[in-house]
Design a protein that fits this description.
- The protein is of the alpha/beta class.
- It folds into two domains: 361 residues, 4-Layer Sandwich (Purple Acid Phosphatase, chain A, domain 2); 78 residues, no CATH class.
- It contains 17 helices and 18 strands.
- An eight-stranded mixed β-sheet has the order 1-5-6-7-10-12-11-15, with no helix packed on it. Strands 4-3-2-16-17-18 form a six-stranded mixed β-sheet, covered by helices on one side.
- Strand 5 and strand 6 form a beta hairpin.
- Helix 2 runs antiparallel to helix 8 and helix 12 crosses helix 14.
- The longest helix is centred in the last third of the chain and has 15 residues.
- It is globular, with a radius of gyration of 22 Å.
- Bound molecules: fe (ii) ion.
- Fe (ii) ion (FE2) binds next to loops.
């Protein structure tokens, strides 16, 4: 077993390590996705348009599901696999930017996942807008050597072109939906239709060539729709589609209640994590109730709920009437890293800092962002914190034990404290900070930069789950972009979930 970021600085990927071999997997020319480019922002406008003029996702999703049912997909949307009692599967979230940090995950993923029965992509398969044309470089090429089927649930980005690309690739080559009747002039729906980005016609030859990369019979997977259940060995895995705005429609909600019945142990996979960044987000169901009413219900036998969307790893073991449900964030599978050092000491649903786990650990997250800002703003000497300094200042400001046992004590200077404060470490609700640089979600995407500023360690991760009739072992593996961790991906977190 190789060192993880919990053990050593080298295990975290810091230092002058040999760069990974992943670059040989990348296409010769990588179109760099820039979230600063107004064209990218304009292309990804449907989320904003939906929040202004009403969200049409539920209706569009119903139409897709009806089209799949008409094409012969099973009405209960259950994929019945013939896996033995003991099998493994992989989960990888928020994969598709098609750049270094996506490809850097691939060698370790192939190594750890070579004998797994299948993989599930937990949301945001394709950035920025889920286009069919992007599936070559962001899905088929990176995972061409993954020998088993890959299932997926869509994230908000996959919905920016009405899910057309996702439906073609994962749902039996579903043809585009027929156009809808024109809405009444000047109604909300009319305004929405005016501003809405519509799917572009796919480049068919490009798609055919891309598909050839994953054409082996053992790699094929056909889903009944964007949400589904998989019966595999002793468990049921349920994937839900939380659309553009992180909610689910009434029809899907009724289905979820239905497939959640019964004694079979269950694992939920969702694009909207239920616990994230120290907060509870129960995920509303249209017409009433929440997804997190369904998950803890003892009649449903859920043991874990895994969500993508936020690009790091977090785990919250929540006690529900004497049972523990593992709530996991696993969105670190490729796209740009979201900070963990901005997460205040955890206290939610009786989960405290002692039980909470995350990757990257907070000190490494702060060191990563200090370097990024130093390079971006050309103020390296001011901003850059060594991983030892970052770890020490995070421990001081958050009142948590240091990430790694420090070999030599470090003096936390005023500069170190100032940088930590500017980058949002140790923000306390009772002491709102004055100035803070953006380090989370959309802003990190705005800063999501050229490879000149974004280099290893990338702090990416993926999951492997080993299932037996007695227990599920869940492990989070790291990908740093360095050769050492490609050859032996370190385990950053591990938990065994009893099934009886
Ligand atoms: Fe994402």
């Amino acid at each position: 077993m190789s060192d993880s970021s919990r053990d050593t600085v080298e295990g975290a990927g810091w230092g002058t390590a040999e760069r990974g071999a992943y670059r040989q997997l990348m296409p010769g020319r990588v179109e760099k996705l820039s979230w600063l480019d107004p064209r990218t922002l304009w292309a990804a406008r449907n989320g904003v348009v939906a929040s202004w003029f009403g969200d049409p996702t539920g209706r569009t999703r119903s139409r897709w599901v009806a089209a799949r049912a008409a094409a012969g997909a099973p009405a209960d949307k259950v994929i019945r696999r013939a896996d033995p009692d003991r099998f493994s599967f992989m989960v990888i979230g928020d994969t598709g930017e098609g750049d270094d940090s996506q490809y850097a995950v691939v060698p370790g993923f192939l190594k750890v996942g070579q004998d797994a029965a299948f993989a599930v992509i937990a949301s945001d398969v394709i950035y920025p807008v889920g286009s069919t044309d992007d599936y070559g470089t962001k899905f088929f090429r990176p995972y061409q050597d993954y020998p088993a089927p890959i299932y997926a649930i869509p994230g908000n980005h996959d919905w920016y072109e009405d899910l057309g690309g996702f439906m073609r690739v994962f749902c039996g080559d579903a043809p585009p939906l027929p156009p809808e009747p024109k809405p009444r002039s000047l109604s909300r729906a009319w305004w929405r239709a005016l501003l809405w980005r519509r799917p572009r016609p796919a480049d068919e030859q490009r798609l055919t060539e891309a598909r050839a990369l994953r054409s082996a019979p053992a790699q094929q997977a056909v889903q009944p729709g964007p949400y589904w259940a998989i019966d595999a060995g002793p468990i049921r895995i349920i994937g839900i589609d939380t659309g553009l705005l992180g909610t689910i429609d009434a029809e899907q909600g009724a289905w979820l209640r239905e497939v959640s019945q019964g004694p079979r142990p269950k694992i939920l996979i969702t694009g909207s994590p239920l616990y994230v960044d120290g907060e509870h987000h129960p995920c509303a169901i249209e017409g009433g109730g929440t997804v997190d009413d369904i998950v803890p219900d003892p009649a449903h036998h859920y043991v874990a709920a895994i969500g993508g969307d936020i690009h790091n790893y977090q785990r919250y073991p929540v006690d529900v009437d004497g049972r523990t449900i593992q709530y996991v964030v696993s969105g670190g599978g490729g796209a740009f890293m979201h900070a963990t050092h901005t997460i205040a000491p955890v206290s939610v649903a009786n989960v405290t800092e002692q039980d909470f786990r995350c990757y990257p650990r907070r000190g490494d997250s702060l060191a990563f962002y200090s370097r990024l800002y130093g390079r971006r703003l050309r103020l390296r000497r001011f901003f850059t914190l060594t991983e030892v300094e970052a770890t020490a200042v995070v421990a001081e400001r958050l009142g948590i034990p240091p990430t790694r046992t420090q070999s030599s004590p470090v003096r936390v200077t005023r500069r170190i404290r100032l940088v930590a404060s500017l980058l949002g470490a140790g923000r306390r609700p009772d002491r709102p900070s004055r100035i803070r640089f953006p380090v989370r979600k959309i802003y990190t995407q705005l800063f999501s930069p050229s490879s000149a500023t974004y280099s290893p360690p990338f702090f990416k991760s993926f999951l492997r789950l080993d299932v037996t009739p007695e227990a599920v072992r869940l492990r989070c593996f790291a990908a740093t972009g360095n050769r050492a961790q490609e050859l032996q991906p370190p385990v950053e977190d591990e938990v065994t979930i009893p099934l009886r």
